[in-house]
Amino acid sequence: MPLRRDPRSPFWQYRFQIRNRKFFGSTKKTTRREAEAVERVERERARALIAQTEHARASLKLDDVAGRYWTEHAQHLAGAANIWHHLGLLLDFLGKDTLVTELDDDGVAKLVAWRRGHRARHTSHKTVRSPPSAASPEFVQGPPRLISPFTVNETVATLRALFARCKLWGVRFAHEPKWSKHLLPVPTERVRELSDDEAERLDAVMRDDYAPFFAFARASGLRLRECFLRWDDVKFGTRQIVKLGKGGRRITVPITPTIRDILWPLRGQHPEFVFTYVCQRHGAGPHAGRIKGQRYPLSYHGVQSYWERLRKLAGVTGFRFHDHRHDFATKLLRATGNLKLVQKALNHRDITSTLRYAHVLDEEIAEGMERVARDVKLRNQLRNGPLRVVKPLAG
After folding, report:
1. Is residue 323 within 8 Å of residue 217, measured between CB atoms?
2. How high is the mean pLDDT of the chain?
């Protein structure tokens, strides 16, 4: 049956199969006639996609390899939008018609050098004073900062993923780049906690419609991209949130009483997305069509932009959004003293990533060392003979 109604959604769902490939999704339409029109469009899109994929199977051009990698794997990952961006950069610099088998260390080195000159997107500009000769003292915006070594490494990792995918397809490389040679050193990530005073200042100036999102980030310890929930991810019955996280890995977050208190009142605000905001003015430009007073889903860049403004209003410095995750981890470790528990809560694949928080246990370690020292001292005294009790001299 190509169209069906899901009792959990007001929209018609489409489901069909072409050449042993299944396609399904929501039409976002509530009437059957409109849903059928959407379903016809999706069928044509699916046929074009299959034809493109079959062409790519016989081609090792970078454009075709990237397209096949995206279709078969990358589009389903949690960081799909970021991967799409890096794939576009690779095609722009290396060329769409370049054969993957022709890429070597020299090509990757040039790619790294090119990326290191790029400026960051969606970041606030540094503010510098205007020249002293200006008639009146003003402030002007300088250029955005250069992208971080981590971001450069992400582009290299995307290219490496294409090579790994080609190997699954049976491609053999005579001169595969030595990837570790091209990765830039990345500074050890700092751990920053949010003080009670800073938390109070942030809460005092935060908008009511954004408050549930930030409360959830603090209570769950999820990464920013992972905080954007759909109602399909939230299972109140089993008291779990289940979704894809970093690297396409399945993550499970227990719905604690605190998280339930955050999410439960949001039901009914939007049929698909959990966290929304109230539009403050009629939309213009890319937001044309948005109506003042209506609710719309929060977006990744929208939250980043609001976070920058919120920090300035609250006077909180040196605290990134990602530091909410560090704050959660340090407080959890301090409360439990259990590194394995914190590793599971943060969905770390390797406990070495969790060890950055081990300093939290320094005080407990010192107390334990002192207890051991006292026990050793007592055993030595007992081994050398009974303890003598010296009576005070009579006055």
Report:
1. no
2. 86
CATH architecture of residue range(s) 196-357: Orthogonal Bundle (1.10)
Using CA atoms in the order 335, 340, 344, 347, what is the torsion angle rounded to 10 degrees?
110
Distance of CA 270 to the CA centre of its chain: 22
* Tens digits of residue pLDDT in 250-305: 899 999 999 999 999 999 999 999 999 999 887 776 677 888 999 999 999 999 99
Could you report the per-residue pLDDT of 101-156, keeping only the tens digit for each?
A: 999 999 999 999 999 999 986 544 444 444 544 444 454 556 778 999 999 999 99
Q: Which residue has the tokens 């005092």?
A: 204
Residues of the chain with pLDDT > 90, as a percent, come to 51
Residue from 27, 20, 18, 21 nearest 3 by CA: 27
For the chain, the domains span 85-130+138-187, 196-357
How does residue 394 score in pLDDT terms, banded at 50, 70 and 90?
low
Q: What is the number of other CB atoms lying within 10 angstroms of the CB of residue 303?
A: 22
d(CA 303, CA 251): 22
